[in-house]
Design brief:
By secondary structure, this protein is an alpha/beta fold. It has 15 helices and 17 strands. It has a seven-stranded mixed sheet. The chain has a five-stranded mixed sheet with strand order 13-12-11-16-17. Helix 1 (16-25) packs parallel to helix 8, helix 1 runs parallel beside helix 10 and helix 5 packs parallel to helix 7 (213-233). It binds FE(8)-S(7) cluster and iron/sulfur cluster (SF4). Iron/sulfur cluster is lined by residues 82, 84-86, 89, 95-97, 134, 136-137, 166.
Length: 519
């Protein structure tokens, strides 16, 4: 395994600020894929994309930020082998492209996977997407991957098929992908310059030969770009995932963003490197750090144009089940599925999803109504703030502070409230008691926020949060998040105007490394 971490050969890059500025000036997808895109991306809606594209994304939790509050996805771990090595991956762990570190509980055969999909679909009717994302690379295991898709297409045709790949084998499989009606493909692209790539990929295996160094990175980037172009030419929606590795590709990702935009990618998802020594990866063992929350946000903000950035990725396990941010995989082990009575009823699923859709429309309407109030504030003194929210989904403030394993982060200013990310945290309340150590890490994870919205919170954490300058707010319990965030912001600006408080900007925050502790 290639272990070099000093990079004397990387060509000098423009300073980050200059690159961010350049990226901010370069807005928009350069070519038009099927979307035709006046606008595209995860926060778009039916008003700014074609009906065909909206139909594809409206209930896909990864391709639509709005959908991720309401619809679930599942992965089946049918693809164990990989054809490349990434310095942030340890084969004992899930694919770091698409997963948080944590071993896959079970590798499945396509037949076992098909059974699991039916079991999950009948238990979680809002599960709309089946993804294959590892634990290796789906296209390094094409027989298992496509056999699984074939079985699902026959038994559960209402489920969308999705796959995630490193792209090396992609050009060889584009026709098959299209023939199975796989409408969503993610390619992990961390570089478009082999000089940078050689520090991320020690080797690739291509045409029965192992390639290393610059040659390996050059082949990989050429194959990724070719695969992306072939997919978008066929109208298949492509998302690009990039892992942000400070000091290696952080500045370069602006160039990656431009390259994938110009080839018609629908969405760009820049994710933080997850790197801890206990994962046993090259980067973990070499002490390569991941980005801070504000470093990640600055890069995402700079790259955001008409091609919106995905900011709600949870770096899921290769066997994840449930809403993004919740993990119900333990409910669906092979042993448990064997004992389940599985009744796949497409009609019940459709009816349930109609109710989910009404709930989603109510969320959108509530936000719109509050947004109209906001227009009275004009520029709101240029104030912008982040708010952390404890939520179990459905777009509501509905989680107890002590039970939250993550907080969703909303940015609010005179333009409105926008989801900009999430922060994993250690569970604060364990066995009925608050853990002081966990509270410190929670505060560090949301330290850049002015307030935290919760359904309920105890006296002790409330006091400590206040001391840290974060306002604990429980008055919006069980109300819609964005509507509440706008109401809070208007109230806040009113107090600033009245001289009751002084607005101060907040500091940076940590991105938690490693697996969270499940509730
Ligand atoms: Fe899975 Fe990926 Fe399909 Fe989603 S995940 S294969 S596109 S169904 Fe989603 Fe998970 Fe992020 Fe992937 S949150 S890691 S982006
Ligand atoms: Fe690991 Fe995925 Fe990279 Fe393969 S493509 S080495 S499985 S992170």
């Amino acid at each position: 395994m290639h272990a070099e971490t000093n990079h004397p050969n990387i060509q000098p890059l423009l300073p980050l600020d200059a690159l961010l500025q350049k990226a901010a000036e370069h807005k928009g997808c350069g070519t038009s894929s099927e979307g035709g895109k006046a606008s595209c991306g995860s926060s778009g809606g039916p008003d700014n994309m074609t009906p065909e594209v909206w139909e594809k994304v409206k209930n896909h939790p990864c391709y639509s930020e709005e959908a991720h509050h309401h619809y679930a996805r599942m992965h089946v771990a049918v693809a164990p082998a990989c054809n490349i090595q990434c310095n942030y991956c340890n084969r004992k762990y899930d694919c770091a492209n698409e997963s948080r570190p944590g071993v896959v509980s079970e590798k499945l055969t396509p037949e076992q996977a098909a059974k699991k999909v039916l079991a999950v679909a009948s238990t979680i009717p809002q599960m709309t997407v089946l993804g294959i994302a590892g634990p290796g690379d789906p296209l390094a295991n094409p027989d298992k991957t496509f056999k699984t898709f074939e079985l699902i297409a026959k038994t559960a045709p209402d489920i969308k098929l999705c796959l995630s790949t490193n792209g090396l084998a992609l050009p060889d499989h584009v026709d098959t992908i299209q023939s199975f009606n796989v409408d969503h493909v993610t390619i992990t692209i961390n570089m478009v310059d082999p000089e940078v790539g050689q520090h991320i990929y020690p080797w690739i295996y291509y045409q029965k030969k192992r390639w290393t160094g610059i040659d390996a990175a050059r082949i990989l980037t050429e194959r990724q770009m070719q695969g992306l172009e072939m997919l978008t030419a066929r109208g298949i929606l492509c998302k690009v995932n990039s892992v942000m590795i400070p000091g290696i590709n952080d500045k370069h990702l602006v160039e990656v963003n431009r390259a994938v935009k110009s080839r018609g990618a629908f969405l760009h998802n820049i994710m933080p490197l997850i790197s801890a020594p206990e994962h046993g990866t090259v980067f973990g063992l070499n002490g390569q750090r991941g980005p801070t929350a504000q470093e990640l946000k600055a890069l995402q903000d700079a790259c955001e144009g008409e091609m919106n950035m995905m900011r709600h990725c949870r770096q899921c396990r290769a066997d994840a089940v449930g809403l993004l941010g919740e993990d119900r995989s333990a409910e669906f082990t092979t042993e448990k599925i064997d004992q389940m009575e599985v009744v796949y009823d497409a009609t019940t699923r459709r009816e349930y999803q109609q109710v989910v859709e009404q709930e989603r429309q109510a969320t959108v309407a509530a936000k719109k109504a509050e947004q109209e109030q906001l227009s009275q504030l004009a520029d709101a003194e240029g104030i912008s703030m982040l708010i952390a929210v404890a939520t179990k989904g459905h777009g509501k403030v509905n989680e107890h502070f002590g039970h939250a394993t993550e907080f969703q982060i909303y940015e609010v200013n005179a333009k409105g409230a926008k989801f900009v990310g999430h922060r994993r945290v250690d569970l604060y309340c364990q066995g009925g008691y608050g853990e002081e150590d966990s509270l410190v890490t929670v505060i560090r994870a949301i330290n850049d926020c002015h307030a935290v919205f919760v359904a309920k919170i105890g006296g002790c954490p409330k006091d400590d949060l206040k001391k840290a300058g974060i306002d604990p707010v429980d008055k919006y319990a069980h109300q819609y998040i964005e509507q509440s965030a706008i109401a809070y912001f208007m109230d806040y600006v009113g107090k600033v105007r009245a001289g009751e408080i002084t607005h101060q900007s907040r500091g940076d925050a940590d991105i938690r490394q490693g697996a969270y502790i499940a509730a």
